[in-house]
TrEMBL record, chain A:
Protein name: Spermidine/putrescine import ATP-binding protein PotA
One GO BP: quaternary ammonium group transport
Domain ABC transporter, chain residue ranges per copy: 9-239
EC number: 3.6.3.31
Keywords (A to Z) from UniProt: ATP-binding, Cell inner membrane, Cell membrane, Hydrolase, Membrane, Nucleotide-binding, Translocase, Transport
Taxonomic classification: Bacteria, Pseudomonadati, Pseudomonadota, Alphaproteobacteria, Rhodobacterales
Signal peptide start-end: none
Classification via PROSITE patterns: ABC_TRANSPORTER_1, ABC_TRANSPORTER_2
GO cellular component, one term: ATP-binding cassette (ABC) transporter complex
Domain of life: Bacteria
From TrEMBL, chain B:
Transmembrane residue ranges: 50-70, 82-103, 123-142, 154-178, 220-242, 254-276, 296-323, 403-420, 452-477, 512-538, 550-570, 576-595, 638-661, 681-706
Topology class, membrane: Multi-pass membrane protein
Keyword line: Membrane, Transmembrane, Transmembrane helix, Transport
Protein name per UniProt: Sulfate transport system permease protein CysW
Taxonomic classification: Bacteria, Pseudomonadati, Pseudomonadota, Alphaproteobacteria, Rhodobacterales
Entry's localization field: Cell membrane
Entry-linked PANTHER family: POLYGALACTURONAN_RHAMNOGALACTURONAN TRANSPORT SYSTEM PERMEASE PROTEIN YTEP (PTHR43496:SF1), PROTEIN LPLB (PTHR43496)
Domain named ABC transmembrane type-1: residues: 216-419, 512-702
Example GO BP: transmembrane transport
Gene name tied to this protein: cysW_1
Similarity comment: Belongs to the binding-protein-dependent transport system permease family.
Gene3D superfamilies hit by this protein: MetI-like (1.10.3720.10)
Source organism: Pontivivens insulae
């Protein structure tokens, strides 16, 4: 299969209400052709609703939806060139694997033989050549998942939608299948919108992540941007682990915010923060523990867990309990040890309260 | 979509020019006109007979054709077509309603008497095709204006079902209303109320030592008693079934299900054979205790007993779900709070079941009011509405206006109960029955409750068993009560075959075959309409869905007698003239049993994961293809269940049918009622036994197909979903 005609997706002030429940509040969205974008967020934040709006399974209460530059707001799901992979796979249990994959082609009017050929090709692409005659029930979960992907991509959709495609697989398989999906997407140049509530999965597959919260976009950006520059405590906590330490900004000049943690002064750039209370984001990998004699924030180790490659500590300090990850080959501390906590100025980010 | 409209335009124009517009003498499906050369189409009627008013549909379709090809802007085109097709539809229906020589003439004055008095026969196949085409042109255009998310198939289905329900439920019921206001030579609003509130209907004399109460009061009292009785019996059975280790549960189950496949008056008959003046029990009691043989059975008590026997299974089926639905953890919680079993039952379980009990009570109430067979056989001097309606139509002093008044009284009672049930159950039931993912044990019954249940339920079960043995026994004896020698006479008289000539000499064959044919045609149609409605209700969103659901469930609340009366009032004359045909029997079954199909369909549809049809739709299939290739194949079991149930209901129903049978199309139940009225109990019972066996065979046959299908399906679906 050659590269296909991928389409962009644009939401313009899209609102979705279910009776009294507002599932989406004025959503603006821009997804470029050929990009894999992940919608990430806690359960109930409106990810599935967004996906179903793109598919045409729901109609927007307000606003405008474009696919490939065309207004599709009032088009039915049938007439949109969008395919979807469902969380439950939704394979038709009364059809064979080949019939399942060929379904979209035959209902689109393609001749049976040609459709069968294309279906076989699609199955090859997901590594299931020769499984066509089986029933979905005669496949393992991971294989069923791949049939669902094959069924969606043989239609050469402008946009491929995946709603938590891995949530029914066990942890090992999940990693394998997600890499496979990413590979196919890149090889065919598909535009893909991928829904998950697992931040690690999102970081691993996405070009860009859109984090949603309470029916709104909380922050969008590449995985690295989100990790390095969270714009809120929620994002900082949701993307990777973070210690959130309440601080008092005493002075702001030229965009530099000055504050104290323990006995040490810090300053960092953040145009959005004003003087007053805020929170400092401290990634657990960027905190160093030293001997108590050393200069730093004094603390006491209250928990230590040895995990092979790394050691995880909880350290009680005057700034509150801190979660710290240290490499295993560094000097180990025991529970009850007094330590001095060192935090580099570059490693500290500020977010508003 | 333009092609689809063009196709319907062609069909409609063909209906106006090539098919006979009116009902031909041979009936709707008669094709004798095929040989005649020129059928009496709408066009020839206009040109040759001068019935200019038939121009409406032709004009409408031609204008739509012009709009389709002349207007470029799609939404404007769709809107114009919608308006024109709707206007054509309304005008065509209106001319049929106004220009008639018989029936209610409400609009006569409005339209100038001359044309209206001209008269014309009822709609035939040509008119049918034209009207359906106009309807679909209108619905497809409506979908093109953006309604129903632009889905022509769904909008058309909604349109078709609404039209069918309007024509075959609301239109006939409206006729009753009109008739109720009729006085000699016109209509009067003021006459209605004195007649409706007549003491013959609502009188309470019996309370004050008078002769008897009004018919409506009788019906009401009977219904309240029956509802209370069946609810208590049903609860006792449900408790025994779920909360005790009673040995013969299987047998109990059979005893509770058999009455469902029993023609309604058969239980009444068996009661006569047992407790009538020369019944077995009466004889024995007279022998042993010297009690006087009386006719006590004919009246309130007889009907009451028969209804208890007939309707307890319904209460049981409702309540077993309710009793199982009471969350064990709540009962366990109560017991850990050191309440004993009796306290737990009274303070926790029973209150939790209250909505279910109300539901069972209201169902029993509606069933009792609508019951026709038992009062007909056992009523005696105790007049109730459903039978009085019948006698007001067929009796020596036929009085349709009185029948209409009685029907309205009955309808207002059942409708109030129906509304009460929806209001009550809709509000309360959700909160109490928690999910199934509740392990733990339901509390056993306290000894007192258990004893009460046994004492209530077991004698009843014994009585049912005796009643059914009587039915079998009675069909094999010469003359019940007088000559108990064994005989096959009744069977040979009913189902005799002369093997030398191969002729069917039995008197019952005719009605038996008619019954089977009509039931087998009606059953799949009922299932289809029911499942289609269920699909729309579960899987589609549209404006007015609540009203749509309500109107499709409404026919459940309309008693059979009322339906029967309304059908002969509505379909005895043009524009829809169906009495005396087999079509009217099929139609009455389809629309009476439709709510059952809808309920079954909703249950089955809810178990089918909606992502399956969503997957199909996102893969580019339209909703028609989705229904055909994904939903229908997976709905097999539900389809068969709905077919079985409508088949059984069609065979056993008597109340509506008895008004609509004709010499040509007689049905088993009305044939049996005729025999009962002649006192030929033997043949009536033999026939009933044959019907029961027929239905059992049909059910087993269908079960065989359903059973195997369900097994394969669930096991595939489960594996697919598990992974
Ligand atoms: N069909 C519906 N009817 C009513 N509320 C709905 C419906 N679908 C979703 N919602 C509500 O909209 C919100 C967002 O749901 P959803 O998009 O499914 O969240 P998630 O991010 O977990 O996929 C939730 O509060 C949910 O209850
Ligand atoms: Mg979701």
């Amino acid at each position: 299969m050659t590269k296909i005609n991928a389409g962009s997706v644009r939401f313009d002030g899209v609102v979705k209400r279910f009776g009294d429940v507002t599932a989406l509040k004025r959503l603006d969205l821009d997804i470029a052709a050929g990009e894999l974008v992940t919608l990430l967020g806690p359960s109930g934040c409106g990810k599935t609703t967004t996906l179903r709006l793109i598919a045409g399974l729901e109609t927007a209460s307000d606003g405008r939806i474009e696919i490939g530059g065309e207004d599709v707001t009032h088009l039915t799901a049938t007439s949109r060139k969008v395919s979807m992979v469902f969380q439950s796979y939704a394979l038709f249990p009364h059809m064979s694997v080949a019939q399942n994959v060929a379904y979209g082609l035959t209902v689109g009017g393609m001749r049976k033989t040609e459709a069968a050929q294309k279906a076989e090709h699609g199955l090859e692409m997901v590594g299931l050549a020769g499984y066509g005659e089986r029933l979905p029930s005669e496949l393992s979960g991971g294989q069923q998942q791949r049939v669902a992907v094959a069924r969606a991509i043989v239609l050469e959709p402008e946009v491929l939608l995946l709603d938590e495609p891995l949530s029914n697989l066990d942890a090992k398989l999940r990693r394998h299948v997600r890499e496979e999906i990413r590979q196919i997407q890149q090889r065919l140049g598909l535009t893909a919108v991928y829904v998950t509530h697992d931040q690690e999965e999102a970081m691993a597959v996405s070009d860009r992540i859109i984090v949603m919260r309470n029916a709104e976009i909380a922050q969008a950006g590449s995985p690295k941007e989100l990790y390095d520059c969270p714009n809120s405590a929620f994002i900082a906590d949701f993307i990777g682990d973070a210690n959130l330490v309440p601080v008092e900004i005493d002075r702001v000049d030229d965009g530099q915010c000055h504050f104290t943690i323990g006995n040490r002064r810090y300053s960092t750039t953040n145009a959005l923060i004003q003087a007053g209370p805020a929170q400092a984001v401290l990634r657990p990998q960027s905190i160093n523990l030293d001997n108590p004699q050393m200069d730093g924030l004094p603390g006491e180790v209250t928990a230590a867990a040895y995990l092979g490659r790394e050691i995880q500590y909880t350290v009680e300090t005057s700034a509150g309990p801190l979660f710290v990850i240290a490499e295993a080959n560094a000097r180990a501390h025991k529970r009850g040890d007094a330590v001095s906590v060192n935090i580099a100025n570059e490693a500290v980010r500020l977010v508003a309260n | 979509m333009r092609q689809t409209i063009a196709l319907w335009l062609l069909a409609g124009l063909a209906g106006c020019t090539l098919l006979p517009w009116y009902m031909t003498s041979g009936g709707f499906w008669s094709f004798e006109w095929v040989g005649d050369g020129t059928p009496d189409s709408a066009l020839t009627q206009i040109v040759q007979v001068g019935r200019w008013w038939l121009i409406a549909p032709i004009l409408a379709m031609l204008t739509v054709a012009i709009v389709q090809f002349g207007v470029v802007e799609p939404v404007r085109r769709a809107k114009l077509s919608l308006w024109i097709a709707s206007a054509g539809l309304v005008l065509t229906a209106l001319q049929g309603l106004v220009i008639v020589r018989a029936g209610p003439r409400l609009f006569e004055g409005l339209f100038g008497g001359e044309v209206a008095a001209a008269g014309q026969p009822g709609f035939g196949i040509g008119a049918g095709v034209a009207l359906i085409s106009l309807l679909f042109i209108a619905t497809i255009s409506l979908s093109q204006t953006g309604r129903g998310r632009g889905d022509a198939f769904v909008v058309s289905m909604i349109g078709l079902i609404v039209a069918l329900v309007a024509v075959f439920v609301f239109y006939p019921v409206a006729h009753i209303l009109i008739r109720a206001f009729e006085i000699p030579g016109g209509y009067s609003l003021t006459q209605f109320f004195p007649r409706f509130f007549d003491s013959g209907l609502w009188g309470l004399d019996c309370l004050f030592g008078g002769q008897s109460c009004g018919t409506a009061i009788n019906s009401l009292f009977l219904a309240l008693m029956t509802a209370a009785g069946t609810t208590i019996l049903g609860l006792a059975f449900a408790l025994i079934f779920t909360r005790t280790d009673f040995r013969a549960k299987k047998l109990l189950r059979v005893l509770t299900v058999i009455p469902i496949i029993t023609p309604p008056f058969v239980i009444g008959l068996a009661l006569i054979l047992l407790f009538g003046r020369s019944g077995t029990v009466t004889e024995i009691a007279a022998e042993l205790f010297g009690t006087e043989k009386t006719r006590w059975l004919y009246g309130f008590w007889g009907v009451y007993f028969a209804q208890l026997l007939s309707f307890t299974p319904i209460a049981f089926l409702v309540l077993i779900g309710v009793v199982q639905g009471v969350s064990p953890s709540m009962e366990e919680a109560s017991q850990t709070l050191s309440a004993d079993r009796w306290q737990t039952f009274r303070r926790v379980s029973l209150p939790l079941m209250r909505p279910g009990l109300a539901n069972a009570f209201l169902l029993g109430f509606i069933e009792s009011l609508a019951d026709f067979g038992n009062p007909l056989v056992l009523g005696g001097g105790y007049n109730v509405l459903s039978t009085d309606i019948y006698f007001a139509i067929v009796g020596s002093a036929a009085d349709p206006a009185k029948a209409a008044i009685l029907a309205i009284a009955l309808l207002s009672l059942t409708l109030s109960a129906f509304l009460a049930q929806r209001w009550w159950v809709g509000r309360k039931s959700y909160a109490t029955i928690t999910g199934k993912a509740d392990s733990g044990q339901n509390a056993g019954l306290s000894p007192v409750v258990k004893a009460i249940c046994y004492w209530i339920a077991l004698p009843w079960a014994a009585l049912t068993a005796v009643v059914y043995s009587m039915i079998i026994f009675g069909s094999f004896v010469k003359l019940w009560g007088y000559d108990h020698s064994f005989t096959f006479d009744h069977y040979t008289r009913a189902f005799g075959i002369d093997f030398t000539s191969g002729r069917l000499t039995g008197v019952a064959w005719d009605s038996y075959f008619t019954t089977l044919t009509i039931s087998s045609i009606a059953a799949p149609l009922t299932a289809l309409v029911g499942l289609a409605t269920a699909y729309l209700l579960v899987r589609q969103k549209f404006v007015g869905k609540d009203a749509f659901e309500f109107s499709t469930m409404l026919s459940f609340a309309i008693p059979g007698t009322v339906i029967g009366v309304s059908y002969i009032m509505a379909f005895n004359f043009p524009p829809i003239e169906l009495t005396g045909t087999s079509i009217i029997l099929i139609v009455v079954f389809v629309f009476r049993n439709m709510p059952v199909g809808v309920r079954g369909g909703i249950a089955a549809m809810s178990q089918l994961d909606s992502s399956l049809d969503e997957a199909s739709v996102t893969l580019g299939a339209n909703s028609f293809t989705t229904v055909r290739r994904v939903i229908l194949p997976l709905m097999g079991p539900a389809l068969f269940a709905a077919i079985t149930y409508s088949f059984v209901r069609a065979i056993t129903s008597v109340s509506a049918v008895i008004f609509l049978v004709s010499a040509k199309h007689n049905m088993a139940t009305s044939f049996i009622v005729g025999r009962v009225e002649n006192g030929e109990f033997g043949i009536a019972i033999a026939y009933s036994a044959v019907l029961i066996v027929t239905m059992l065979t049909a059910i087993l046959l269908l079960q065989l197909i359903i059973g195997t299908r369900r097994l394969r399906r669930t096991d595939r679906v489960q594996t697919a979903a598990r992974a």
